[in-house]
Design a protein that fits this description.
Blueprint lengths: L1 E2 L1 E2 L12 E2 L9 E10 L2 H7 L11 E2 L3 E8 L14 E5 L7 E5 L3 E3 L6 H5 L4 H12 L7 E4 L5 H12 L3 E6 L2 H9 L4 E4 L5 H7 L7 E6 L4 H4 L3 E9 L12 H6 L3 E4 L2 H7 L2 H15 L13 E2 L4 H9 L8 E3 L9
Parallel strand pairs: 10-11, 10-13, 11-12, 13-14, 14-15, 16-17
Antiparallel strand pairs: 1-3, 2-5, 4-6, 4-8, 4-17, 6-7, 7-9
Helix pairs in contact: 3-4, 3-10
């Protein structure tokens, strides 16, 4: 197979190279999959530089989100959930490759009518946004929800989920193009977070200027968000893409009776695995009802493993929106 193998950490994603490797051999409880698309994530950038909290022993294959076709089912499972030839998406280390091995619990069926590109970016960001807004913040009809970095992968998912539950969405972004994208996915209002007065602008958009009910923060903007959060509001922290781990003014939290909630989807999978089935069931329902659609970055196409470095580079420079996905063409090994 062809893959992006990391033998040593790199400074820039453009330094990644494609190499030929033996085809992977699945363990008895794993599927062997043919990858048709792989998504780029910020944690991929950290991992290839040796700065992520999870670093596999060298050498390893980069990438973690994909969509493809089942080549072989687990030999130890006489009744596999997915059959040979079925289209699936999932998350497992080694997605920047033409083949991958993965256990059943890390796979989901590609929704009807969806392509590999749309499905490849679902497994990590979408349940994160759903769990943050619905399970952690309890978003409901009538809420005003502030979504930071609203044109990003988790951001566009959050915009759609909040709208599906009847909320009014205020989206922050840093360019006219990203404002346009956020509005196209349902945001009611857009605010430029690069302006010093963005908090006042948010307040003006809420009833009687009281502030928002819920803040969705993948960036690290809690302190400023407290200035536009209503009394009794909820701020859900899902990441720090700004690179800044904040020291929060807890007196403001106290005086505003605000709840700060940390949420990582990965911890749900280990601490409350039963919730995964409910979350995905709800998400597939939203897709069937036409309330959620894929968020693939479409201003430029990335075709082939050779473009993974370019895709990650643009993602790191914040030159993209939505989910950046690379299509992976197949050779003779794609024949089932």
């Amino acid at each position: 197979m062809r893959a992006i193998q990391v033998k040593e950490y790199v400074k820039e994603p453009e330094d990644l190279t494609v190499t030929n490797l033996p085809n992977p051999i699945p363990s008895p409880d794993q599927y062997l999959l043919l990858i048709h698309a792989a998504a780029a994530n910020f944690f991929d950038l950290l991992q290839i530089r040796g700065r992520y909290q999870y670093q596999p022993p060298l050498p390893w294959i980069s990438g973690a989100e994909f969509a493809g076709v089942v080549l072989f089912t687990p030999s130890a499972n006489p009744n596999p959930k997915f059959k040979k030839g079925e289209r699936v998406f999932g998350s497992s280390q080694g997605a920047y490759a033409t083949q991958i091995c993965a256990p059943e619990e890390s796979l989901m069926p590609v929704p009807p009518g969806w392509g590999f590109l749309e499905a490849a970016g679902m497994m990590v960001t979408t349940p994160t946004s759903y769990a943050a807004l619905v399970m952690s913040a309890g978003v409901k009809e009538g809420d005003y929800v502030l979504v930071h970095a609203a044109a990003g992968g988790v951001g566009l998912a959050a915009v759609q989920i909040a709208k599906a539950f009847g909320a009014t969405v205020i989206a922050t972004a840093g360019s006219e193009r990203k404002f346009e994208v956020a509005r196209n996915f349902g945001a009611d209002h857009t605010v430029d977070y690069t302006k010093e007065t963005w908090m006042q602008e948010v307040n003006k958009l809420t009833p009687k200027g009281r502030g928002v009910s819920v803040v969705f923060d993948p960036v690290g903007m809690v302190n400023n968000s407290l200035k536009c959060t209503a009394w009794g509001g909820r701020i859900v922290i899902i990441g720090f893409t700004s690179g800044n781990i904040e020291k929060v003014a807890m007196n403001r939290v106290l005086l505003r009776n605000v709840s700060l909630i940390g949420m990582t989807w990965g911890s749900y999978l280990t601490e409350a695995p039963a919730m995964s089935e409910k979350v995905w069931g709800d998400l597939f329902r939203l897709i069937r009802e036409g309330k959620f659609r894929g968020t693939v970055f479409s201003d430029r196409e990335f075709h082939g493993l050779e473009t993974v470095g370019q895709a990650l580079g643009m993602l790191g420079r914040r030159e993209t929106w939505g989910k950046v996905v690379v299509s992976i063409p197949q050779g003779p090994e794609s024949k089932l």
